[in-house]
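User: My collaborator sent over this chain with a note saying "see what the structure looks like." That's all I know about it. Can you take a look?
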Amino acid sequence: MQSNKILKEKKIVIYIIVLLIVLSAFYIFFKLSCGETEKDILEIGTFVVLTLTLIALIFYAYYTNQLASIAQARWERENVLNATYEMAGTDDIGRAGRTLFRITNRSPFIIRAKIWCEFKIYDSPVEVKDEFNGTNIWLVFPQQMSQGWFEIAPLLAQKGKTVQQMKEEYASDNRTTQLTMDLTIEFRDEIGNRKRLPTRRHYFAFNDWRWIPVLTVSHGWEE
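Assistant: Without extra context I'll predict from the sequence alone. Here is the result:
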């Protein structure tokens, strides 16, 4: 998008300069064809100097604008939607399985975020509270961190399971399907920018008592 805008502006500048050169050539030809006098030569010289000055000013304005655009783009890359998320378990091994969810805002703007955690137990979906199903909006103020949490035990209870049962059922062939979470996050700031992170799957390893992200996907590389 930005490169297309720069290319369009460059074309406009070139068109204006070519037009000025063509008009200048016609003017000089017209003056010379009418008979050369000392006054005509002076007028032609003045016109050429003014034309060259105008072309120089156009170049100056164009490149000044480009430098400002580059500085603005760099500032946006460094500041706009500079937000990160983190999941951290607690030390309640074998109990409720509280997971802390943190969003850190390093930008100078207020960021709003929505979080979708699609939990499944053996591929069967379960419900989660509004902070993690995309209903409620997280407000994260500049240079601050917001933290929420959810627990594993209430999720398991919806399917009549307990933490102890899941630990006993744990095996190498079902470890990635016992309890899964497809996580999607969207950030928006107060000046209208938005960023939606690709959905990322995590599974809960009951033997290690921690969430493990799936690092690869089989789609999303279309040219």
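A starting point for your reply to your collaborator: Residues 83-213 form a domain with the Immunoglobulin-like fold (CATH 2.60.40).
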